[in-house]
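quick one before i forget lol
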Amino acid sequence: MITVESLSHRYGDATAVDDVSLTVEDGSFVVLVGANGSGKTTLVRQFNGLLTPDEGSVTVDGHDVGDEPVAARTSVGMVFQRPRDQFVAATVGADVRFGPENLGLDRAEIRRRVDDALAAVDMADRKPDRVDRLSGGEQSRVAVAGALAMEPSHLVLDEPFTGLDLPARRSVLTRLDDLHEAGTGVVVVTHDLRDLLERADRLLAMSDGSLVADTTPADLSPLRDVDVRVPDGR
């Protein structure tokens, strides 16, 4: 479980997140929406210690993220909006190995995690391939595999469909469905609810750094004043 209590984060004099409290339950599928600059990315990057709150706290499974960032990054996997921003190695296999190696796991366990993670995104035979020669959709899948190799209880994806064509988008959605069905909690940050509305258990919305809605797909009325794309007919 991810618990955020009275969290605020500022960049200089600008407040990006303003006194936000929320809980993300294990195994849930949460979609966090809002316009660009609403504070979505700043908020989720606190979940595993990539950013530190100026006020308030974040705990993951009862552990304070500020005190135990390694534990948080093991429990909460993060996939950035631009996957290449998180790649640390030249080849697919080396990049997915990086996280488990830094946990100090033995070789057999590292190999198992890498094989399982790449199989989950249909990239099992691509270990030797150079990351910089992959398509945008393939890079997204490798980024997901890198997060999965940490065997997180939650997977957070920030605008995962940016720049993807339709087949790549469908491939990522299929992987998310499989992960959620297997019990992994999923948090998707987006401004576009297409293809996600029917998958979500819960919808959160941010505006100007504040959490302004906490609803379900059955009731979209709280999103009326939020700049978000809703599927036709809803």
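fyi Helices lie at 40-44, 69-75, 92-102, 107-120, 136-148, 166-181.
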